[in-house]
Amino acid sequence: MNLNIVTYPDKKLKEKSKKIEKFDNNLHQLLDSMYPLMMETNGIGLAAIQVGYSVRALILNIPDEEDTQSIENLIEMINPVITSQSGETIYQEGCLSVPSFYEDITRSESVNVNFQDRDGNTKTIEANGLLAIAIQHEMDHLEGILFIDKLTYSRRKKFEKEYKKMLKEKKSSKK
Ligand code: Y12
Ligand code: CO
Q1: Is 91 in the pocket of ligand 1 (CB under 6 A)?
Q2: DSSP per residue over 57-106, as a string?
Q3: Among 38, 120, 142, 169, who pairs with 17 as Cys (CB 3.0-4.6 Å)?
Q4: Which atom of ligand 1 is nearest to the CA of 98?
């Protein structure tokens, strides 16, 4: 499948994604196509809605201690649900759908998540550190929430101004 990243302010990103009921070839093709796109664009997490499909699927590939990403560490989550969370942590987040912007976001430090794999098998994961942050960021996408929606009013206004300027500059450099 040929996929492209949907970027803010596309309204698609506001959609609530639907529960996946069929663990068929269509789902497998979507997941298989999301992975190379995430790697090409230097991502560590990608939700299906970010490539235009409003279904509850996401992928994660957290770099190891040597800062290397490998397919062995790829996690695919279908229909994830956070069952418990604890602590608080702040991390400067970025998102492939909001290019060039990074902001400090507060999230739970640890999360327990139930999810299904690509074949519908039920799984559980206990996550903390960067993985826990990435899971929460990607699960927000399934609800139509972006990390910029969590900014204070004044930070959001500043972001909108800078983002508009960036889009304008990008447009004029393409002419
Ligand atoms: C911690 C915080 C946020 C997440 C969510 C996943 N976020 C990403 O994977 C962000 C990737 C990203 C990649 C960029 O590089 C390129 O686009 C080539 C990037 O740079 C620019 O937009 C210029 C920004 C974000 C997980 C864990
Ligand atoms: Co994102």
Answers
A1: yes
A2: EEEEE---TTS---GGGEEEEEEEEEEEEE--EEEEEEETTEEEEEEEEE
A3: 142
A4: 22
The first and second tokens of residue 41, run together, are 């664009």
Q: Which residues contact 51 (CB under 8 A, 6 or more apart)?
A: 3, 4, 5, 6, 30, 33, 34, 37
The per-residue pLDDT for range 84-115, each reduced to its tens digit, is 999 999 999 999 999 999 999 999 999 999 99
Four-residue CA torsion sign, 107, 61, 118, 143: positive
Where residue 26 falls (left for φ over 0; alpha for ψ -120 to 50; beta otherwise) is: alpha
Residues designated as active site: 138
Q: How far is the CA of 60 from the centre of ligand 2 (A)?
A: 11
Nearest CA to ligand 1 atom 2: 93
Single pTM value for the model: 0.97
Residue pair 97/53 in contact (Cβ under 8 Å)? The answer is: no
Q: Which residue has the tokens 């302010």?
A: 9
Distance from Cα 5 to the centre of ligand 2, integer Å: 10
Q: Which of 6, 161, 7, 26 is nearest to 98 (CA)?
A: 7
Structure tokens at 165: 């300027």
